[in-house]
Design goal:
Layout: H1 3-9, E1 17-20, H2 26-43, E2 46-49, H3 61-68, E3 72-74, E4 79-80, H4 83-93, E5 97-101, E6 118-121, H5 125-136, H6 144-147, E7 148-150, H7 152-165, E8 169-173, H8 181-187, H9 189-195, H10 199-207, E9 213-217, H11 220-229, E10 234-235, H12 267-281, E11 286-289, H13 296-301, E12 306-308, H14 318-321, E13 327-328, H15 339-344, E14 350-351
Parallel strand pairs: 1-2, 1-5, 2-4, 5-6, 8-9, 8-11, 9-10, 11-12, 13-14
Antiparallel strand pairs: 3-7
Helix pairs in contact: 2-5, 3-12, 7-12, 8-9
Length: about 375
């Protein structure tokens, strides 16, 4: 543990609340909420589970959060989800609140109005809270979907699809759908690595299986390609996707210049679809995926056997990557040693991920 982090966490007896407000995908949100619930139960803390940063676009953020929890019931008194209640607690008791953020030393407008007890980077909690507590208190003691209960139509849809995926292999491909390079690197290098795996690597793994597939991805063209390649063996949700090349759902605004660019995409429906997929993956017999927290529930909590795909390095020059100063389509491979140089550049680089032999995700078949 770093001295700075140790100093921040040495007086946690003054803490009453944990403020969890991340822009991460819903799989990461669920994983942190799951393990922080163990922390809260041992310390009599409350978790301020603020999902407003996940929502963006035409809908008002507070309205989206309110509508989300019309479909989900939180069955735990330690979790606060109401935006107005969270704001009231932060306004009056921020000094008794431990805030969790993705990146330190960067302006976070949602944190700036308050004087928190301390602010900790989310990934640093692995060595302080999450991993040690998970070892002492097995994850099997707490199913996150016993805390976040599906209601009405969402639960009915899960129950209808559950027997259909029970004999299938769950496939989740996290390509980014045009996610920006600098954001992919910002939080962890594995974010970039998982995006550079070619779709053909999934096909190679899938071709070896006789079972059917439950297909999930942040890139719609991959789902379409799977249906064409395995027409009698593929099942997928009729779900909400951002437009081609506009990023993963929770990052879509990073690639949109105006609200009009967002079109008909609904972050609320996208979140509901993602929750349903995550839970259904936990009912499959096996998981094929690249590195993503989207499959955390299936792999870690439900202990579903899994095949994890990684990418093989290919040497590419900086000039090749930055040649047109705007966008580059890669063949799905990149030498990770180039990352340091690219971070230093102000040039906006966008990876058109979901490609085969360098072809665009928009035309990949």
């Amino acid at each position: 543990m770093s001295p700075d982090l140790e100093m921040k966490l040495e007086n946690l007896h003054d803490v009453k609340y944990i403020y969890l407000c991340l822009q991460d995908g819903i799989g990461t949100q669920l994983a942190f909420l799951h393990d922080l619930l163990l922390v809260a139960s041992l310390n009599d803390w409350k978790i301020l589970f603020d999902l407003r940063r996940r929502f963006h676009g035409p809908e008002d953020r507070e309205t989206s959060v309110k509508q989300l929890f019309e479909h989900i019931h939180v069955q735990n008194d330690s979790v606060v989800t109401s935006s107005s209640e969270i704001d009231a607690i932060l306004q009056h008791e921020s000094e008794a609140t431990l805030a969790i953020t993705q990146i330190l030393n960067r302006s976070n407008s949602y944190l700036e109005p308050y004087s928190f007890h301390s602010i900790v980077r989310a990934t640093d909690l692995n060595e302080t809270f999450r991993e040690p507590l998970a070892k002492k208190h097995p994850r099997t003691n707490l199913d996150i979907f016993d805390i976040l209960l599906f209601k009405d139509e969402l639960e009915e849809k899960f129950q209808q699809l559950k027997p259909l995926v029970a004999d299938k292999i769950g496939v989740h491909a996290r390509f980014g759908n045009g996610e920006t390079l600098l954001h992919a690197i910002d939080t962890h290098p594995t974010n970039l690595q998982r995006m550079l795996i070619p779709p053909t690597a999934f096909f190679t793994a899938m071709d070896q299986r006789e079972e059917g597939f439950f297909i999930c991805s942040d890139t719609e063209t991959f789902v379409t390609a799977c249906k064409r390649r395995y027409p009698d063996k593929s099942l997928s949700l009729d779900r909400s996707f951002p437009g081609p090349g506009q990023g993963a759902g929770h990052l879509r605004r990073l690639l949109s210049k105006t609200r009009e660019d967002l079109g008909d995409f609904s972050p609320l429906q996208h979140t509901l679809d993602a929750l349903l997929e995550i839970r259904l993956l936990g009912e499959c017999t096996h998981i094929i995926s690249n590195n993503s927290m989207f499959t955390w529930y299936a792999r870690v909590y439900r202990h579903i056997p899994s095949t994890s795909l990684s990418f093989a390095d290919t040497q590419l020059s900086i000039s090749d990557l930055l040649s047109n100063n705007k966008e580059v389509a890669l063949p799905g491979k990149m030498d990770i040693s180039l990352i340091g140089n690219l971070i230093q550049s102000d040039t906006p680089v966008i990876f058109d991920i979901g490609c085969n032999e360098g072809s665009s995700a928009r035309t990949f078949t």
